[in-house]
Request: fold
Amino acid sequence: MQYCHYFRLVSFNMLPIIVLLAALGNCNAQNTDASTILDRALYKPLNLLYIGGYVNTSLNYFEAEGETEGIAPTLNHLGVIAQINPFKYFNIYAEFEHNPQYNFQINNLFAQIGNKNIGLRVGYLGFPLGRYKQYHIKKTRYFVEHPLMVTTVLPGISCDAGAGVYANAGDADISNISFEINFVSGLDENIIYTPSANTNMEMGTSKNLKISDNNDKLMVNARLGLLQNNVFEFGASILAGSYTNRMKEDPSMFTKSKKLQIYVFDVALYFNKFSIESEMVINNIELPENITELYASSQQGCFIDLSYELFKKDAFLGKRPLKIFSALRYDYADLNNGYFAITKEKINNDYHKLALGLSAHLFNKTSIILNGSYQWFSDLLGNPNKKTAGVQLGIGSYF
Amino acid sequence: MCKRNLFYLLVFSVFYFASCEIMDTMPNPDEVLISPYAGLNEQELAQHLEGDAVFNKSFTKEEGVGPVFIATTCRSCHFNGGKGHPFNEIIRFGNWGVDGHFNEMLAQSGPQLQYRSIDGYPEEEVPEEADGVVHLNPPALGGLGFLEAIADKDILSWADPEDVNNDGISGRVPFVHTPSYAYGRFISDEQLTDHKGEMIGRFGKKSFSVNLFQQAARALNEDLGMTTSAENHDPFNWKAPKEIRDIGDGVPNPEVSDKMLEALTFFLRSTAPPPRRDTNNTNVIEGEKLFTAVGCVKCHRNNFTTAETKLAFLSKKIIHPYTDMLLHDMGAGLDDGYTEGDAKTYEWRTPPLWGLGLAEESQGGNGYYMHDGRALTLFDAIQAHGGEAEQVKEKFNELNIENQNKLITFLRSL
Reply:
């Protein structure tokens, strides 16, 4: 039953992409905008010190069950990035973010030895889990909000202490294979001590500036990415290991190591003016027996972004380009993929969201975004959906 | 702007305005399981909202959850504010000694199973020696303040433990031990009946708590592992090594302030029951007559007036809870071998029926009625009645299908 569900999820998510792959042969590659601040800063260190940042703010109007809080401004993300390059093959990279959920968090803070092809990193490493999460600082934004699966099923834009290596072969802007593997402290037991009635990956990441001692052994986090002719991009990521803390337990009584695996697959296609970006995630969490009554041991989610360039002017307000895009996003997150142990009924807790966007990209650095979204949510017990609709007018920029 | 761009703008606009059309509207007041009483003044409404915040607050380990617990927030068990679902049931246990007395197994972490625990602390299991184990679904919250406001004299007047009137119903007043902290927390002077140092139990499926202050303090303690000045000791796992047990959750007691406990109590007192629906429906009207005729109303009492209380919105109100607040013998089928307070293992307090008709809609389609959710439908729930209610059930079964449906339609209107 569960595999059928996975199959349906994969089919639904990937079918449009498979169909479009057939038409790939004669397509011209577009500028993918795949390069990010992170790429540029890490792989092309030109200066001794690089300081930058990003901001994403919006005016929001949402309505649910006939009620609204009116128009509310929010500062969704405000990040500061710094990179110090004291030597040719050594640099330190830091990325801090303010957001409404956690106020302040570290996204990355590590030292790196190596060049653009191969290197070693040590510090607080952002989990490379899927393309969106890894390249969350985007030049071009079509939507104000991160996809639901990134914020609810994945451990957010978070990091953990560890060390890892990365390797790249080929041209990062055309065809390239990239691989990154990190050994990190990993998620801790807080993923099951959550305020909501589901496991929560983000609750398991340390929020403080300290080395977390949360597992009996390290977790493995890896991503393999392929870019072909700047048209097709595929990635597979994993975070796996034990999330329980045996060190605190009495070995004679409570030696219970519990496993966790997060699998993420991402696919992107870039045509002349049209692009598709899609990801799918599946979490498997081995739960203590007493929790299986409350939570499902699996979560899943996916999103697919379709964007189309409506308008382009190469020299707008001087020599800077202007592009206007339309975009469509479907978002899905099932926070409890399973059945109640006692009643054998399906646990719902499913989010679906459709969003339409118009965005103007100015000067290669700034996006002005208009989004309309419609979300429907089924609670744990499968009661009638709760619906939320809204409009957001946002601005996103990096500097 | 070219036609294509206009097309996309049009699609965007249609999408947005269409989404407005398919949006939910604000639910009718009679569809809402919990809401504050309409008569609250501004100050009382503020107190209610303060308590609502405590009810919905997710407590953390750092704030004192545990070391063993069931949930980190009240709302997770009282799902949607209505009656609970079996997935968040609580389990209580005890042991029958050779002397015939029921032992709550306090030394073995009884009487409630806290099946979750904080890091490094073992969760509990039901001890093998426990031979009285009961599974309890959480109760609905609406109208608890009204139940607290019922005068003692009314409850006493309905009792008929020896069945003197020979109607087959012998409701018994539950007199229970009253902890010192619960004195002075009654909302009415008409609630001070002292029976050999014990007072009338009103809350809990076996009527263990005498007022909502006690019930709130107990729930915080036994369900969340949060201590208060009233219940000042964390639950523990007797099987945990002593050095771990001594540390507990590591948070000094009390973990919840008196202000928060008072606010939570006020929230429970000021949460109204759902209003009735479809009262002009012919089947509902006839169903209510059948409800009376077959004798359901002998225990599920309908009309009475609350006592004079310290809270104006609860005082001298005519209410229709469909309960007599008494303990009744419900037969062997509902005897789980567990007891607490003054109740026998086969005795249960008559539950109020208000909000019953919204149970299925708020629990994914199944009502999960009775104390442990064993009955999926109202018909099943009626069939689960035994003991004193056996004769009433037989009368219900003698009704033709049409009349049975009318009676159930009436129940759905509550």
Observations:
- Chain B touches chain A through 46 residues (CB under 8 Å).
- The CA atoms of residues 142 and 273 of chain B lie 4 Å apart.
- The radius of gyration of chain B is 23 Å.
- The mean pLDDT of chain B is 88.
